[in-house]
Amino acid sequence: MGVLDGRVIIEVRCNELTMRDRNPHVPWSPDEIAADAAKCREAGASIVHFHARDARTGAMSGEVGVYADTIRAMRAVSDVLISPTLGASTIADPHERVAHIPLLGAEAATRPDFAPVDLGSFNIDPYDPATKTFRNETLSYVTNIAGLRHEIDAIHDSGVLVQSVLWNVGSARLLGAFLDMGVLRGPVYAHVLLANTFLAAHPPTVSGLRALVDFLPDHPDLHWTYSAVGANALSLVHAAVESGGHVSIGVGDYHYNELGAPTNADLVAEVVRMVRSVGREPATPAEVRQAFGLGA
Prior knowledge:
Layout: E1 7-8, E2 10-13, H1 30-43, E3 47-50, H2 64-77, E4 81-84, H3 94-97, H4 100-105, E5 114-118, E6 122-123, E7 127-128, E8 133-134, E9 140-141, H5 145-157, E10 161-166, H6 169-181, E11 188-195, H7 206-213, E12 222-229, H8 237-242, E13 246-249, H9 264-277, E14 281-282, H10 285-292
Parallel strand pairs: 1-14, 2-3, 2-13, 3-4, 5-10, 10-11, 11-12, 12-13
Antiparallel strand pairs: 6-9, 7-8
Helix pairs in contact: 1-2, 1-9
């Protein structure tokens, strides 16, 4: 039996590019992110994904020093595994997008455990059905195969594990091709990104989840998680867990005002309650490290 049999990885997507107008608990500064991560770890999380942010304004920061300060602060208070962003569509050039990972990986104290790579090119097309308009009609997230291979190679060479982010069936098929080619190596951590307003992604419903999961490549050491951008991810916990998946959740993706503007730790605690209700347990950071062959 594998080390994660019966265990569910809970990953926290702690801030993304989210401001505080809908939920005041979005962490921005390195110290805020670290404190949030420690509380999430105590509640049952094992991985924390973060965007480097300006401590005062919340604007995205691309400064390597901010990433490094955040990772050091997190490591000082918690043993959670760490996954910083690559900047996604906010940085057009894939070489620039991944440039901070080798710099962070050069020192053990700042080396992340995971780094996400979005497999494909997509329109960033948030649609508002209430107004029947797109909030953006000009932004595309473009990464060709050569750019994706560069990102993956740079992450691997830094001693960091790739998290393969899947927006649709095409992403899942590309994951299979990269595994077949040896571009990506196991263990595989696949992230099924569902979204309420991004039309390039599958909808955050049970059928949307299953339609993508059904196309995951057959790999003996593949683990998958899901997130729900712009939607309440709690509605899919049971469907994902009962299908062998894991859970990624956080106020970076959705405000959860229907729960009274909770903290990330509050969300983790609710996921743990739901996971235990079906006879499963949250995975510890040590168990996740062992499952993915990551050093202590």
